[in-house]
Amino acid sequence: MWKRGTLSLERKKAMYGILFISPWLLGFILLMVIPFFQSLLFSFHKLSLTSDGYTLENVGFANYHNVFFVDPWFIRSLTEAVSNMALNLPLIIFFSLFTATLLSQKFRGRMFARAIIFLPVVLASGVIAKLDNGNFLAQFIGSATSDLEGNYSGLKSVELRPLLLQAGMSIEVVNYLTGAVDRIYQIISKSGVQILIFLAGLQSISPSLYEAAKIEGATGYEAFWKITFPMISPLLLTNTIYTIIDSFYNNGVTQMIQDTAFTRLDFGISAAMSWVYFVIISAILGVSTYLISKRVFYYD
Amino acid sequence: MKVFGVVNATAQAAVHWYNRYNPVEKAKHWLWVITRTVLIFGICFIILYPILTKISIALRDKQDMFDATVVWIPRHFTLENLETVIGYLKYYESVTNTLWLSLGTSILQLISCALAGYGFARLKFWGSQYLFAIVILTIVVPPQTIMVPTYLHYRFFDVFGIYEMFTGNRGVNLLESFWPFFISSAMASGLKNGLYIFIFRQFFRSLPKELEEAAYVDGAGVFKTFARVMLPNSVPAIATVMLFSFIWQWNDSYFVNLFAPNATLLARSLDLLPGVIRPEYVGGVSHTSLYLNTGMLLGILPIFILYLFAQKYFIQGVERTGVVE
């Protein structure tokens, strides 16, 4: 075809580009695409391990039937995971935006505060959360409360409830708010990355916008809603997606999928479960992305 | 007249004083500073509280457990719990193993993701933007979706059936070794690798084009330019990805349980700890709790120490990779 010497720089770069991404491409095909379709295949089969491989036996939709109508726990833990996510998502987004706004201001010890707030991202591990379940002693120190994940926090909304109820709020709203206070540790520890993303966004807003607003006589409150919020709205989308993915990364459902495969050795059912799970997550992500991106404001 | 004059002068003085010192603005400012300090202090306290309790519990003697007057400061300091739990966890062995595993995977991921990131950022070819969209999509797929095939893939490891063709057996069993981790890392499809490729691509795009052009004019090839010019200039991105991949691999228990459930790794030892220190083995619920807290403290300790030294890079790295698109 061409001699090497006659390659234009563009063409050469394109060739090198393919070369540079080839490790990823190979991995993607071998470890992502093939397993992805294999897993779909397994979900319609009964898989049994033999000494020199595995055999597949076609069972049609039996695995899916099992997941939806026979297994007593799967649908329950799935709805629990989804509703937990839906409850925590607005709180996490609100809290991380609030904290990022606080941290973006200049004050003494700013770096120190940032380091502490980012600590849960580094130390958050499922193992620690799991171990914390059996932690009796820590619960005696301070009147600690245990949430679902066994994280204890010394905070409890004792006075808040009657106060809000007497103020005439409806019981659901009060439950939601007090629940949020009781789960504060969980929410804070899940907001580390989101806070940083918002911080990066806040620092990229040009100060001249705020100066102009100040000259026109805008209050700080107005400046936040008219400048900061629209400018940061693309990141609301980023953070929503991140939070959804993060909450589905490790929960009761994923535990179930693993147990089904490796303790009950029902590989087919496990594959079916994971596909149901994947479809649900994709649907949630798709819908939320669509709803938010309609309202996002892009500043050019 | 005179009275008016006095009043007038007083009013003027008052106005002058007000303009100079502006008490309302000052009060607002200080109120805000106090509120902000209280809020930030509270948030930091909530985060540090569990760690502080763990430290307090790990350092106390067993007799302090039943002493109602001991809340935070132990009356009898002891390192006994630490010693016991280090024995239970096979601490040194599991930390060394986890260290090697995390180092190996993070270095391999660094190489493969930097190559891919540079390829996507500067070496455009037909279809590369679609491939990059796929990279972002891979972040969304939960690893559990492909869990069973992945497991079988490494149980009978074989590249396109070559091994079977030569030997007649169904692949090599790579489970219970670090190979699955290393193979997937070398192919940039390990833990959260889509994110690292994204970070590298963003960073390489932010570097000035003149750097490469100068290198090309001086007669360097594409690869040499990448290794000699681009990589030395991308230390922040390298530090960020390195730290993230190291720490996430360290904390990961999902892949460890999938690929190497019997290896002596920290995540695994911590998983087994509650079974070892059941109340009936160690003499009561309180002892179990004592060892459990100590175990958790030991589990987060190495990362905590690393974080003390590297937190600056972490926070700067995340801020500078410009997730702002």
TrEMBL record, chain A:
PROSITE patterns: ABC_TM1. It is a multi-pass membrane protein. It is found in: Cell membrane. InterPro entries: MetI-like, MetI-like_sf, UgpAE/MalFG_permease. The keyword Hydrolase does not apply. Residues 74-297 form the ABC transmembrane type-1 domain. Keywords: Cell membrane, Membrane, Transmembrane, Transmembrane helix, Transport. GO terms for cellular component: plasma membrane. Belongs to the binding-protein-dependent transport system permease family. This is ABC transporter permease. It comes from Paenibacillus beijingensis.
Automatic annotation (TrEMBL), chain B:
InterPro entries: MetI-like, MetI-like_sf. It is a multi-pass membrane protein. Pfam families: BPD_transp_1. Residues 95-309 form the ABC transmembrane type-1 domain. It is found in: Cell membrane. GO terms for biological process: transmembrane transport. One of its GO terms (cellular component) is plasma membrane. The chain crosses the membrane at residues 30-52, 99-118, 130-152, 178-199, 230-250, 290-310. It comes from the Bacteria. Keywords: Cell membrane, Membrane, Transmembrane, Transmembrane helix, Transport. Its main location: membrane. PANTHER family: ABC TRANSPORTER PERMEASE PROTEIN MG189-RELATED, ABC TRANSPORTER PERMEASE PROTEIN MG189-RELATED-RELATED. Belongs to the binding-protein-dependent transport system permease family. This is ABC transporter permease. The lineage of its organism: Bacteria, Bacillati, Bacillota, Bacilli, Bacillales.
